[in-house]
Amino acid sequence: MQIFYTMFFFTIFFSQILRAQDNNQKLNRYIPQGYTLLDSKSGDLNQDGLTDYVIICKDPNEMDSEEELQRPVLILHGTTNGGLQLFARNDNVALSYYAGGPIGDPYTGMTLKKNFFSIEHAGGSSDQWTRVITFKYNLDEGQYYVNRDAGEVWNTNSKKKKKLETYSKDQWGVVPFEDYVVE
């Protein structure tokens, strides 16, 4: 019986490794030349029953560069034959490695839920900040738009409460994903 459980465990474990390698091979095809994968998340963003991906790429030498290098964000929609298709790209949404200040790399993660995805950042030193930029897929228009761009700012040496910073919708209005620039 113990041999059965051991074999079962290794079968499950090995199949997970193969599935991860298959997903990486799928995604690698879309990573721009000269970049590597920083992060990826999957979900059904356009609500068509197929698996979509949001991937963030980075320059493998970004830590050694003296300039702030872009981090392309790509939205890949699943196709009915099991493949992927590039839907949109934006090189100005994920903050660069040095944008976090003394804390370092500001990228803290990505979240996907239903037809929304968010790119999350944090940085600073004694004045610290967070910033979460959320995009929503408009099912009627078949397009991703900025839904929210907000974060908190606080001083670690102060007893004052954190201040919510909302980067005004009046400033950016209705902007498609591929046109949004983080300032």
Descriptive notes:
A hairpin with a 4-residue loop joins strand 7 (127-138) and strand 8 (143-155). This protein has one domain. The chain has helices at 2-28, 169-172; strands at residues 36-43, 52-58, 71-78, 84-94, 107-113, 116-124, 127-138, 143-155, 163-166. It is 17% helix and 43% strand. It has a five-stranded antiparallel beta sheet with strand order 5-6-7-8-9, with no helix packed on it. It has a four-stranded antiparallel beta sheet with strand order 1-2-3-4, covered by helices on one side. Residues 4-22 have low confidence and may be disordered. By secondary structure, it is an alpha+beta fold.
SSE layout:
Elements: H1 2-28, E1 36-43, E2 52-58, E3 71-78, E4 84-94, E5 107-113, E6 116-124, E7 127-138, E8 143-155, E9 163-166, H2 169-172
Antiparallel strand pairs: 1-2, 2-3, 3-4, 5-6, 6-7, 7-8, 8-9
List segments where confidence is low: pLDDT < 50 over at least 5 consecutive residues: 4-22
How helix-rich are the residues, as a percent range? 10-25%
Rg, Å, rounded: 19 Å
- Proportion of residues in β-strands: 35-45%
Read across the widest sheet, the strand sequence of neighbours is 5-6-7-8-9
The computed structural class is: alpha+beta
Distance between the termini: 61 Å
Number of helical runs?
2
Outline: globular
Let me know the largest β-sheet: 5 strands, antiparallel
Average pLDDT, to the nearest integer?
Answer: 85
Number of domains: 1
